[in-house]
Amino acid sequence: MGRLSSAFATVITLCVLAQAGMPARADTGVALTQALSDRIDQMAKAQIHAGRTPGLAIGIVEDGRIVYARGFGFADLGKHVPMSADTQFYAGGLTREFTAAAILLLAQDGKLALTDHITKYLPEFRSGAGITIAQLLVQTSGLPPSSKIPGLSADQTQPIKIANLLASLDQMKLAVVPGTVYANDPINYLLAASIVERASGVPLSDYLEQHIFIPLIMDHTFLAGDSGISPQHAIGYTRGSHGFDRAPVSDPSWLGGDAGLVTTIYDLAKWDIAMPILLRVDAVRTMFAPGADSGPTRYGMGWVIDRRGGKDFVWSDGDIAGYRATNALLPEQHVGVIVFSNADSLHGPTTIPEELGAHILDLIVPPTMAHLDNAIVERAKEWLTLLASGRVRRDELTPSFSAYLTDDLVANQNFAALGPLQSIIPLSSTAESNGETSYEFLVRYRNAQYHYDFKLTAEGKVDGIRLTA
Question: What is the DSSP annotation of 12-34?
């Protein structure tokens, strides 16, 4: 079935949070043994040997320590440069974590407020008068999708100018009322980067270097277009007719505060470890607070806010031409995984870092099983059967989820391709503050297994269904 779309799977991404500045945790028994380390090596090598990616870099952090950092395959196929944990990668959407952090640091210094309207810093964008900085970061700005902005080329190898982008946006109406609907779009973070620059008086790359990269000794981390990128960085590839071809290089102006981060496994681990100290706990809590909940996605500031095994789980991913990356946190357990791949999935199946990271996380922090009412288990199972048959009982859905779960969306997921369900194992249940309950299961089919989240309202209406590999 391949990669599930975000309708059912906001795919899992994993990384690491330090104990510094966070509540102490009880002993969870998390430990990376030699046997587990060997299993992870085997999983990574299997991806390389299957021809799913030229190279991988994987990092694991536990309790503020980097306990695993290795490279596999090649950073450069043409020159046979081996991949290592020190190899620089384009991390794509992981950049948003840092742009959001820059905004939060400026707020701590009194240079701006999250409640400020963006026109205070972007006065030429008059149509954005109703949008706050916070709404940009949680992606509920209501901006029209980038694909509909006139004059904005889809060719990301060509430069764009923010001034031209703002001028085009100013001629358009907002798609929805700000603060009401989540929509993943790079324009939010390109504008957020411009606000950082105008509030601080320096380019985003300089601000990040002075306030994050240098303090955390992230010596090999830069934004695309800066001079510090090594010629030995991982080359990005895409599927070709006879293996992997070099992917087109995106212009730095397209990437910026949305996708321009270049980093390494070691450097990103430093960020995940020290983030609570650098930002202070209140700022981290703000960053991990979701905005509007539209469909199954709960988005914070640069992070998707999730649950796994009844525990908090936050993650972000990156996906640009030639590269894919994943980074996530289990804050209560102070553990996580980073996975980088130098192959995109634009022209054929390749390694999905989110899926590989999920399997690694299952090895080192297995979800805890829960005892659930048989009626809940049977209803969750029944809905998998319904979706496999292409049927939806809309009277059992909340209005918002029914609007999201269109017939076309169900058909495109092709649940029937999974084959017959072989088992459904309860993992956890979580009561939400709004009266809803989220149930998590492990479901097994003949050739694959998935985490299955099933959400019910207090009235018994279905308000979310999601499978993640």
Answer: -------STTS-----------H
At 337, is the secondary structure helix, strand, or coil?
A: strand
Q: In sequence order, which ranges of 130-202 are alpha helices (DSSP H)?
A: 133-137, 162-169, 186-200
Tokens coding 393: 């009982």
Q: What confidence category does residue 2 fall into, taking pLDDT thresholds of 50, 70 and 90?
A: very low
In CATH terms, 34-96+206-364 corresponds, of 3.30.710.10, 3.40.710.10, 3.40.30.10, 1.20.120.140, to 3.40.710.10
Domain residue ranges of the chain, discontinuous segments joined by +: 34-96+206-364, 116-200, 374-468
Nearest Cα to Cα of residue 50 among 444, 447, 352, 363: 352
Chain-centre distance of CA 212, in angstroms? Answer: 20
**Residue type for position 33:** T
Max CA pair span of the chain:
61
Model pLDDT for residues 119-165, shown as the tens digit of each residue: 999 999 999 999 999 999 999 999 998 888 887 777 788 888 899 99
Residue 43 in contact with residue 355, Cβ under 8 Å?
no
How would residue 294 be classed by pLDDT, with cut points 50, 70 and 90? low
Question: Mind listing the pLDDT tens digit for each residue in 248-264?
Answer: 999 999 899 999 999 99
Residue 272: name the closest of 58, 65, 37 by CA.
Answer: 65
The percentage of residues in the chain with a pLDDT greater than 70, rounded to a whole number, is 93
According to CATH, the topology of domain 374-468 is: Nuclear Transport Factor 2; Chain: A, (3.10.450)
Q: Of 12-21, 97-106, 199-208, 389-398, where does mean pLDDT reach its minimum?
A: 12-21
The better pLDDT of the pair 362, 215 is held by 215
pLDDT of residue 9: 32
Q: In sequence order, which residues have a C-beta less than 8 Å from that of residue 418 and are 6 or more positions away?
A: 1, 388, 445, 448
Gap between the Cα atoms of 286 and 453, Å rounded:
25
**pTM: predicted TM-score of the whole model, two decimal places:** 0.81
Nearest residue to 351 via CA among 56, 11, 14, 7: 56
The separation between the first and the last C-alpha atoms of the chain, rounded to the nearest angstrom, is: 11
pLDDT confidence of residue 460? 92
Residue 288's DSSP bridge partners are none
C-alpha 355/C-alpha 340 separation (Å) is 12
Location of structure tokens 């100013």: 170
Separation CA 299–CA 280 (nearest Å): 20
